[in-house]
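INTERNAL AUDIT FORM
Audit reference: QA-55
Scope: verify that the stored structure record matches its stored sequence.
Auditor: D.O.
Record contents follow.
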Amino acid sequence: MPVHEPPHIHDVSEAEFNRSMQTLGAPALLYIWAPWCAPCQVFSPVFEATVSTLPSLATFRINAASAPQIQTTLNLATVPAVIAFDQDGSETGRFIGLRSRQQLHDWIVARMAIASPDVQTAN
């Protein structure tokens, strides 16, 4: 479970995320999680480690427990969920559930216009 905000991940409300996407003009990644979600507790460290290798990527995180409407707004059945957006704010992909660090990295790079450093994975 995330207990702090890594410097490259912005913990935001739904409104803050929407405002950021209107002005960002760059690809972005949104991670939706909840503190009661056991898979989220497993996936959060994987997410944090993976996006730390992609510092140029705008990365946001929303706590679904604090923003329950986000699941309805984004048509999500459950969490954890990751959604990729292009520089225009259009969705380029999403997944629900767990991924390994390498799988997540490959998924992000395949959907985003970002440089891909080599990933050293322990899992």
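Auditor finding: record pair retrieved intact. The two ends are 18 Å apart (CA to CA).
Action required: none
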